[in-house]
Amino acid sequence: MYRDEEDLIMGFNCLAFAVLETETRLLGEGFMTTHNHKLVQTDNVVALSQKDRYAYSRYFNAKYSRKGRLGEKYVFEVEVTGIHHTTVALNYVLRQGLHHGLAATPFGYPHCSVNSFFRKDLGKVLAPELIADANRYKYTPNRKALPSCCRMASNGLILREDIVDTAYVEELYVTPRNFLFQMNRITDEKVVQEQKEENSLPPVTIETIERGVSVFNVKDALSGELGRVDRSILTDLDVCRIIDTVYLKRFLKENEKQSIYCLSPEKRAELGNMLWRDIEQRRLHSIMPSEMRSQVSGRKASVAQIRRCLAL
Prior knowledge:
mainly alpha; two-stranded antiparallel ribbon; single chain; about 45% helix; 2 domains; about 5% strand
């Protein structure tokens, strides 16, 4: 669903507008390449989801010459009630990068709102360079005007701390120290027990949060809480960049839109086989542009990952 940094930026921006337009309280979110999670308080989850998904689908389809619905037909949702249930759900959402093995700490993964809370106490008060007001429309869904109360960074990202209800979330965690503890907490039986003592609702677990994701390994996610990151594996963004900037040129003419969706499934499979052989035979480094070689040298990708990045 998100092939590059620009897509992840637009993904959040679409969510931000949906939050503003439906008067939703956004407590936290995390964007992965294949899905995203958000914890919200809203009177109309359907309207929120429809506005978010429709805006992003239009952007994605236009960019990649694609048609049709993007993602699954229905949104996976879980209702939570109570401070412990809410906090545990928020812990999982904010630690997406950790659970998916992309960062050694939650704070090292940029595509979530974990760095929006207790900014002064955690030394994150430096404001990013902002984009000129005249250029903000380029990064908003359907070229909508961004409210003046919201700032936009120079890369086009609406500042998360202007959309997320940071004050409410900080009250949930009470202190910066407890927030740090929760972000580094290892999931154990005590996490479940605290929720059981709170009310009769089923406890929120990592299985609860990720049940809507078709490919997810709970054991790997729990191992990720220890901060173990395998740097020898290419990320989805790496694989998509390799495909989109190097391999597509071999299958499409220069005047054609450089998109995998301009290829038939058979041609995409052929491209995937070529990429797999180059990785296995360690030829990837030699055919990459010089600025990309250090990013791919000696690293590998799985067959499932290549298929995913080719929408097969």
